[in-house]
Hints:
Blueprint: E1 3-12, E2 15-25, E3 30-34, H1 41-49, E4 56-61, E5 64-65, E6 76-79, H2 91-101, H3 106-119, H4 135-147, E7 153-157, H5 165-182, E8 185-190, H6 193-199, E9 202-207, E10 210-215, H7 217-222, H8 227-232, E11 239-245, E12 251-254, E13 260-262, E14 276-281, E15 286-290, E16 298-307, E17 310-317, E18 320-327, E19 337-342, E20 348-351
Parallel strand pairs: 3-8, 3-9, 6-7, 7-8
Antiparallel strand pairs: 1-2, 1-4, 4-5, 9-10, 11-12, 11-14, 12-13, 14-20, 15-19, 16-17, 16-19, 17-18
Helix pairs in contact: 2-3, 2-4, 3-4, 4-5
The structure holds adenosine-5'-diphosphate.
Domain ABC transporter: 3-233
Protein name: ABC transporter ATP-binding protein
Keywords: ATP-binding, Nucleotide-binding, Transport
Amino acid sequence: MKIILKNISMKFDDVIAVDKLNVTMEEGSLVSLLGPSGCGKSTTLFMLAGLYQPTSGQLFFGDQLVNNIPPEKREIGMVFQNYALYPHMTVLKNIMFPLKMEKVPKKIAMEKARDMASLVHIDHLLDRKPGQLSGGQQQRVAIARALVKKPKLLLLDEPLSNLDARLRLEMREEIKRIQQATGITTIFVTHDQEEALSISDKILLMKNGRFQQFSGPQDIYDHPKNEFVAQFLGNPPINLLPATLSGDRYTVQLTETGEVIQLPYPVSKEVKLNELLLVGIRPEDLYIEVDENKQGIGGKVLIVERIGRDNLVSFLIGERKVRAIVPLDASITQGQRVKFGLHPNRFHIFRET
Ligand code: ADP
């Protein structure tokens, strides 16, 4: 089911939790709502669920305006952060519960619940109570219960945040598998950029209730629309160097050191001379080499850390710490002076906000 938010806002007294959100989520896609705590993710999810009514704007499920449709008539399944399983019921009964509420005959309900249990790989746990399950298993039960009525939309509220790192990775893959197996439109709330980048077809990034960008993981990472998006995605974080534009639009001057960076193409005409800019370069896009003659833009290496198959090198440009990911065989060591170079297409110019 296609989901359309048109100018959706939600106010709580004087707090604008969601501010004029416009997004279209395609049928069958897995969309992450991503952003820092308090940016409006849960409020958006609760409006989709029908638990909150938008203060203004229109919410469509397919062609249907659903602003006034109550949660139970929206054909949605929801998984909460704490799973909200019934502790006194067995796994099978938990999964059957939504069908029982609709008075589906017991035999059919049991059959459907077993099918769902099989889909999420918990066939062997049907007689246990939630207290006898691991976090990951409880979550599988919650997902099976959310899917048992074959909803048109699945809503997941920070579903991985209560799991340890290993289980989180496993369940992340499982959610993707189940979503692809069912083809159900799924909306997933997370504050974890890595999780969003790994699982989503599209990421909706928000800040202070406002839309920032809605793109596929690769696109949002490679083409962040502003400084906030660039900083929020990527670990280690993007390097941001304050600069101003020089006369010819092919050079920017670093504010802190006065050094000039040559750009391979001109900065957009919209940017004004002397306007404060940020040159954004991801650590993996920064080429560095030892600068024996001390002529390049760079500085002294503070620390070299091994991260997997590469080294993470931190050095100073003026007072600012800059990070670069370099191959182990680059042989860069603490205390050396290094200079950096840009890849023609792998840097960003932002206006400082
Ligand atoms: P997130 O899920 O991204 O952490 P929320 O949607 O929970 O953010 O909250 C967005 C903003 O709305 C926050 O400033 C929060 O304090 C406020 N807010 C959320 N729910 C309520 C509520 N029920 N009453 C008042 N303010 C709320």
